[in-house]
Task: structure prediction
Amino acid sequence: EDWSTKNILSMQFVGGHAIEDAENLPQKTRDKIACALIDLVLRELFEFGLMQTDPNFANYRYNPDEGKIILLDFGATRRIAPEISHNYRALLKAGLREDRDIMRELSLKIGFFAADTEARHQEKILDMMSLVFDEMNKADTFDFAATELSKRLQRKGMALAEQGYIPPPLPIDVLFVQRKFGGVFMLASKLRARVDLKTLFAG
Result:
């Protein structure tokens, strides 16, 4: 603090490697990194109410000597409204127990589709969500390397667009949360991690 002024912010240098370089580390280490990052996302959403919403790989570093993940760039940090956290928590629980009626209700509240969205399009969106939860429920450990989930979702999304579905604009906070989910999923896939998602979600 004594090195900083109103115009100068002094920072500490923290050594580390690009997070994606960790893909060459042992499986156990890659699993640990991915687990920690997913746990952080859940805590940001459900505990802190504050989320760094830019999951660019460049915002993560890894120090293999200390076994520490380094987080950079908090300029994209946003407060998450309690209502959004509540709806996501309820959606997660409903999805894991395959309660489609509650999933529909919460998808409407969150903004994944609108009240006037055609019923057939609502069903397709719920099918895509169920696909994600089905993958999570298949085994105790979710294997990000083995899953074809992203490709299957992409195919279903393209089919939905070909049917003429135009999604309503997502609330900005929901858009940022979804971006964070997608980015962390991509990073865990890059690391070919295996993570016990159900235990993390249960916490």
